[in-house]
Specification:
D-Maltodextrin-Binding Protein, domain 2; signal; 10 strands; thiamine binding; ten-stranded mixed beta sheet; alpha/beta; Putative spermidine/putrescine transport system substrate-binding protein; globular
């Protein structure tokens, strides 16, 4: 065989293999970043157990929804992971399809759309993820008011609440703590304007690594990321539920409407709710939606129940309905 012919054969083989991988052995998930909630381990396990490769994806919730809407006439993704309010918005935008995965009956009412357009896979409690070694001698903050003190200038980070779901959760949490409600976000707007005097860092993407490096000493984030940093990566990180209170929110997944690999997408959704899939969340210090998957070892790393008593659930439909108006206000009113 000539060198030219050999090259052609090899190229055809590579293209055939790539085509096979794309058409038969993949599922595209929007917003599955490996550093967030230990999606890295989950994606590896999905491939090992099902043979379906799910590429990493670093979108946030808002970017994922925007992409689904933009691609509505020619979908690219098969499944999507996002905060619950974005799941509700995606259903209203008609970009996700109903699917009731395995273990559907074990998902509590209120944590799933009755038809299966979205359903919770785990939840988190918002608080302060604090790199103690990066505080330059300052004490660990314990309250929302503490973050306004000058000793924390340049140390505080929060994800963009107009785009990232965890950023919006932070806004809801501080708003409720300061006496607001889901019809009035003025306390949150006032708080973020006051916080701007302390030169906060406001990234759009998950910033776990930046906390570990000390670049962002204090980040508004979930308990599971703080516990992972402390118990998984050995960092001197503490998690604080502010004294004025906070919120608990579920993260959900959906099957994308008319996704190109819908069968693979369904299999991925089945897997993340399986015993193995739920155990990944539990071992990453999340609260899996199937409570039976939490090991005693995982339970031991959480703060005491008395601390979690300060974190409340909310009306997630109302939270979703209020999100766009809050985002508009934040973009126009916060310095």
């Amino acid at each position: 065989m000539s060198v030219s012919r050999l090259r052609q054969t090899l190229l055809a083989s590579i293209l055939l293999g790539a085509s096979s991988l794309a058409s038969g052995d993949t599922a595209i998930c929007y917003n599955c970043p490996p550093e967030w909630a230990d999606w890295g381990t989950q994606l590896r396990l999905i491939e090992q157990q099902t043979g379906i490769r799910v590429p990493q994806d670093n979108k946030n919730s808002g970017q994922s929804l925007a992409q689904l809407v933009a691609e509505q006439n020619s979908p690219v993704a098969d499944v999507v992971y996002y905060g619950v309010t974005f799941g509700i918005q995606a259903m209203e935008a008609d970009v996700v399809a109903p699917y009731q995965p395995a273990h559907w009956d074990e998902i509590p009412e209120g944590l799933k759309d009755p038809d299966g357009h979205w359903f919770a896979i785990h939840s988190g409690t918002l608080g302060f993820m604090v790199n103690v070694d990066a505080l330059d001698g300052a004490s660990v903050p314990t309250s929302w008011d503490d973050l306004l003190k000058p000793e924390y200038r340049g140390m505080i980070g929060y994800l963009d609440p107009a785009s990232a779901f965890v950023g919006y959760v932070g806004a809801v949490a501080v708003n409720l703590a300061k006496g607001g409600d889901l019809d009035d976000f003025s306390p949150a707007i006032d708080y973020f304007n006051a916080l701007s005097d302390n030169a906060p860092i406001v990234p759009k993407q998950t910033s776990y690594a930046r906390v570990l490096s000390g670049e962002i000493p204090i980040l508004l984030d979930y308990d599971f990321n703080a516990y992972r940093a402390r118990h998984g990566d050995g960092a001197n990180v503490e998690f604080v539920i502010p004294t004025e209170g906070s919120v608990v929110v579920p993260y959900v997944m959906s099957l994308v409407k008319d996704g190109p690999q819908a069968d693979n997408g369904r299999e991925v959704l089945d897997f993340v709710l399986s015993d193995q899939g739920q155990a990944v969340w539990a071992d990453a210090y999340l609260r899996p939606v199937r409570d039976s998957a939490i090991s005693e070892q995982a339970r031991e790393v959480f703060l005491p129940d008395s601390e979690y008593a300060r974190a409340q659930t909310v009306d997630y439909d109302a939270m979703a309905a209020a999100q766009r108006q809050f985002s508009d206000r934040y973009l126009s009113e916060v310095r």
